[in-house]
Amino acid sequence: MALRSHHAPHFDGYTLYRGSRTEPLDAEPAWATDWLDGETLAFLVDFMDRDEVAFRVYYQDAVSPPPSGFAPDAVIAEHAVDVAVLVPSTFDQVDWHPEAFIENLRPRRVILGHWEDFFRPVEEPAESIRLTDLGHFERRLEHVFEGDWWRPDRWTEFTFPRS
Predict the structure, then answer these.
(1) Cα 120–126–130 angle (5° rounding)?
(2) For the chain, which residues score pLDDT lower than 50?
């Protein structure tokens, strides 16, 4: 299920790379300014076992101001989120992130995504993205979430039991 979302500002209320393309690119962008934000979506992904939800994942790739990016309450009431992928990058540019998403999704586990500085070469060790106090985000998450959570390094693989 695609969920209408929004991209939070990058800093001081300013969002970089606004815009959409009308034509596909012929090659991967060479510059960061060539990556336009387009329409921002979050996703609720159900892995099915016949007619039953066996495992549910919420995926967010950009911080959004609540309730933008929320999953419908009725859908969550039927089956809570097994794993929520939440973004700490630029979380301080909106109110109540991650708190509002934890309340909306009621996840069993949380994985932090899009926390690393993607302007560094992939061969170098991952570091927190600039202008984000990752420790502050993690403390806020721990204040409202009692389950397991991870800030994985690149190429980390997870295996979870079915719900």
Answers:
(1) 65
(2) none
